[in-house]
Amino acid sequence: MSLDLKRQLIAQLVESSRLLRNYIDHRAKGRGTTRAQWIVLFRLRQQEGLSQVDLADVLELQPISLVRLLDRLVEHGLLERRPDPRDRRANRLFLTRAGRQLVDDLDSLRDAIAVDVLQEIPDAAIGTSLETLKEIKERIKGLGEHPGDVAAK
Predict the structure, then answer these.
(1) CA–CA dist 10, 127 (Å, integer)
(2) Integer Cα distance of 25 and 22 in angstroms
């Protein structure tokens, strides 16, 4: 692959990512949430009981950035912090009934976004693209592990 094609691919990824984030933000706002809140809620539905530190790690966020987001989710009654029985300095995170209901409702929004964005793209092309994006993500993460490089967080 020529360097020009690689540059075009990177430019397309950056621009598509920006547009998709904006589109998701707009659609999530219509449901009274944000993309960042949505990501936290989905992850906690999959892995309820994570510590704040573990959640930050899984989401590849700095813990301090996540704390403010969690505070807002607690204030809105979507999430609760419970003391960790094995470590009194830590909290475990659990969805409330309202949080679980919201994330369940957001499933239909996620499906609608996927259909809207990927309509008329063949399944084979989506599968190939998904595998390629996973490889790119892992390569970027690997580049961030070398001293002096910028990490993916």
Answers:
(1) 19
(2) 5
Structure tokens of 121?
């793209």
Give pTM, 2 decimals. Answer: 0.74
Q: What angle do CA 58, 45, 117 make, to 5 degrees?
A: 80
d(CA 141, CA 145): 7
pLDDT tens digit string along 66-85?
A: 999 999 999 999 999 999 88
Dihedral sign for Cα 46, 51, 56, 58, please. negative
- State both tokens at 70: 């969690």
> Can you tell me the distance from the alpha carbon of 36 to that of 38, in angstroms, rounded to the nearest whole number?
5
DSSP run (H or E) holding 96: none
* In contact, 103 and 41? CB cutoff 8 Å: yes
Task: Compute the chain's Rg from CA coordinates.
Answer: 18
Residue 47 main-chain phi, psi, to 5 deg: -135, 60
